[in-house]
Amino acid sequence: MRILFINRLYVVLLLAFLLPLLLSGCLSEFFGWEKNALTPEPTEITSTSDRVKTIKGLPGEQSAQERKMTKLCPPVEEKLFTPQLIPQAPESLMPLSTLATQPLSDFPQAPVRREASTSPPDFYYCDAMLTEDTAWHGEVLIEGGVTIAPQTTLTVQSGTVVRFKGRAGAGAHAVLVVQGRIVVNGAADKPIIFTSLYEDATTGDWQGIVLLASGKKNLIENCRIIGAETGFDASFSTVTFKNAFFSKCRTGARLQESFAVMTGGGAGECGAGMLLYDCEADIRSADFFGNRLGIFAAGTSLSLTDSRFTGNNLLALTADTCRLNIMGSSFTANGNGLSLAGCEGAITANRIDKNAAYGLSLAHSKVKVNSNEIEQNAKIGLRVEDGKGIAWGNAISANGDYDLCNAGSEEFRAIGNWWGNITVDVAGRIYDQHMDAGRGRVLYLPVMQKRPDPVALWE
Hints:
Elements: H1 2-24, H2 26-30, E1 45-48, E2 51-55, H3 64-72, H4 96-101, E3 123-130, E4 134-136, E5 139-148, E6 153-157, E7 161-165, E8 175-178, E9 181-185, E10 192-196, E11 208-212, E12 218-226, E13 230-235, E14 238-247, E15 251-256, E16 259-263, E17 266-268, E18 272-277, E19 280-284, E20 287-289, E21 293-298, E22 301-305, E23 308-310, E24 315-320, E25 323-327, E26 330-332, E27 338-341, E28 344-348, E29 351-353, E30 358-363, E31 366-370, E32 373-375, E33 380-384, E34 390-392, E35 395-397, E36 402-406, E37 412-413, E38 430-431, E39 442-443, H5 454-458
Parallel strand pairs: 3-5, 4-6, 5-7, 5-8, 6-9, 7-10, 8-11, 9-12, 10-12, 11-13, 12-14, 13-15, 14-16, 14-17, 15-18, 16-19, 17-20, 18-21, 19-22, 20-23, 21-24, 22-25, 23-26, 24-27, 25-28, 26-29, 27-30, 28-31, 29-32, 30-33, 31-34, 32-35, 33-36, 36-38, 37-39
Antiparallel strand pairs: 1-2
């Protein structure tokens, strides 16, 4: 009887010791058990307004336990295919060069001495309004602002350098406001330059050129606009750009409710190369390189042909609710290639390759994707969210994670594309219903047996 009593006492004491451990979760650690093995914590996603969305915990960067969790719960994999967001405030993007020079310390920094131009101006204005037709040549210095009155034309002759000098105080940038008409008549060997007072112009030295409801035939030809807040800002206006180039601006060109034709030129080293809001725009043979964002378009009818997008570290081109015809252009080595939401139109005979994340992303877009090269993008070649678009006759191959990812529940038709040589497991390069029951199928058979002729793609 005494032995039985002692045994019962041992059991009670053991339970009294183990029960608190069990309730606190320490027991699993004590015995090496995995906690919540079937319910992993969400994959962390970090994003800011001025950098490409970064997804932590991608394959190759996960711990052994995280990889096991992902295998147990396939839906976690959809974190890998989170679309790149369309920037909500593209005007706020700063050029990479500006971000690189910003001090890391919170302490006030000594001002950097900058050399101002010493060339004597042929024309000098300080907070002036021009009410008669005027022609500029040589050196022009503007302090504060100049306004071109309605019914007045400003002509700028080839070789002219127009410099802008701000005033002390916040928001006191120099600016050229056009309510009438502006004709910038540069020559290929004598371009016209709009820049700041300083020889080493940097972003935001001056405000820019502003068109206010100028429906006349404004012309910007063989021109360089350097170091402005917004190089060219047009609202309810009509403008033609010929070999006009924007550099070191926060925003190269911003157009709203305007009609624009751009031939040649482009934007480089800007926060955003070009912003288009509710416009009609025809862009041909332009170059957008080294910007944070190449082109942003919303509610716009955009025709883009024979243009090049390279080294834009956030996105080459993003469009929201637009009519698009993009043909014969290249989107190479950007953060992402093209991101389209709520659009319709055609993406034809373009080269979309070697981008750091996605090549082409379609969301709720009635877009025909035909005769493109979508290759060697680091994560996904073509990403879709529904079955509204269609892809055929493309070369889609050698992309990092998958050549095509169906992120939605509808079927997507990608019939008659070339996916690589005959040894490629096409099904294994497509992420759809056969990998996740919650996805829609990708219809891809039959496949092209021969790579499309590159000459045909670019004709």
